[in-house]
Each structure stands twice: as C-alpha cells, then as structure tokens.
Amino acid sequence: MSHRYSQADIDTVYRVIAERRDIRHFLPEPLDPALLQRLLEAAHLGPSVGFMQPWRFIRITERSRRDAIHALVEQERVLTAQALHEREDEFMRLKVEGIRECGELLVAALMDDRERHVFGRRTLPEMDLASVACAIQNMWLAARAEGIGMGWVSLFDAGKLATLLAMPAGAKPVAVICLGHVREFYARPMLEQEGWAARQSLDDLVFSDAWGNKEKQQ
C-alpha cells in the first residue's frame, strides 16, 4: 500500500513551500475570524519535542498596544541599523515590518515553566524554541496557501515586549507576526529583491560524513 499523496497534492506542497514569503506590505482589510482560526490551528499542529507544545499566541486587538509594539520595533530598528555600520543607510531604507498596516497582529511566545519538560531538552534545551519555530512555519505555509501574507518581525527587546504583554516570568516573546491581505506576493524574497542578500547554494550547505566535506555521495 502506498502512503504517497497524489502527484497534484505533492506538487502543491512543494509549490507553497517555494512561494512562501516574508511579507512587509499589507492591505488594510481585516481577516475573516474563521480564517484566522484555521491559521492558528495549523500552527498548533506543529511538531514539538516531547509533545510539550511550548507555543503561546497573543492576539493584539487594542490599537494602543499595537502602536506600543511598533514603537519597540522602531527603537530596535535604529539600534540594528547602527550596528550594521557601513550598511546603516541601506538598512534604514528597507521596510522591515508591517505592524501598523496588517489586518491581524499576533505575538508568538515560549510558555513559562519549560524546565519541567526534560524529554528531548535535557541536552538541547533550545528545542523548545525550535518547536515554536515549527509552529510559526506551519502558520506561514497555511497563510500562503490561503492567499494571506505573513511577516515575522524579530526586531524588539524581548524583556520590554514581555512586560508590555504582562507575560509571566520564564515566558519569552519569539516573534511579532503580521497577517493580512496583500496586493501581490513578492516574486522573490524581499531582501533578495532589494539586493540585501542572495540565496546560498544548497550544495555549499550539505556535507558528507564530516563538517565541510562536500564530496558528492555516490
């Protein structure tokens, strides 16, 4: 018995992976609540080490709170630009978030009390963060399939954002997630289109048996 999907389904999976984009430009239309629920459910189906399910999602509905998050991001955007030295001006010309324009704003976070989850984390405690990233990627792919843009904003002081959202000790914000309708999806990743960086060759990133060994496997 074959467990393989139909070729059309397989092609769709690879297509949505290839066409996923980190979106920074949004239309002001709100998201249908049922659609938002589907995207959250997709995230909740993400794999997690030890089935700990460490993700928590905070939906931002108050305009004042959205503005406060934007202010935190703007502070860090300036500091990041300064840290880039010779690329400071180039970075400041990039649009790196869509917090004010997107239809829905979420904050993805690590839960508190993660220390009790030893299974899968005893030697690699950062697997809780990896699990949250998997949930975010699930949401990203589902959003692209639904024709909805999504952007992951990471320019913020985690402690300040945690305080703003009244998060308990031990919990930590991981991503500010912008969701919304878009006029169009970027043909290529935005930072590639803008000349900030180019995608590396996969062949340069796959090794055989030991680090740095790029000999072709027979």
Fold and architecture overview:
It contains 7 helices and 4 strands. It has helices spanning 7-19, 33-44, 63-83, 88-92, 127-145, 158-164, 190-193, and strands spanning 55-60, 104-110, 149-153, 172-180. It has 218 residues and is α+β, with helices and mostly antiparallel strands. A 4-stranded antiparallel β-sheet has the order 1-2-4-3, with helices on both faces.
Poorly predicted residue ranges: none
| Neighbour order of strands in the largest sheet | 1-2-4-3
DSSP strand tally = 4
* Content of β-strand: 5-15%
Helical element count? 7
Gyration radius, rounded: 19 Å
What is the molecular shape? globular
End-to-end Cα distance: 29 Å
- Could you spell the SSE succession in H and E letters? HHEHHEHEHEH
Quick one: biggest sheet? 4 strands, antiparallel
**Helix and strand composition category:** alpha+beta
Question: What proportion of the residues is helical, as a percent range?
Answer: 25-40%
Mean pLDDT: 95
Layout: helices, strands, pairs:
Blueprint: H1 7-19, H2 33-44, E1 55-60, H3 63-83, H4 88-92, E2 104-110, H5 127-145, E3 149-153, H6 158-164, E4 172-180, H7 190-193
Antiparallel strand pairs: 1-2, 2-4, 3-4
Helix pairs in contact: 2-5
Describe the structure using short key phrases.
37% helix, 12% strand, alpha+beta, four-stranded antiparallel β-sheet, 218 residues, globular
Short description:
By secondary structure, this protein is of the alpha+beta class. Helix content is 37%, strand content 12%.
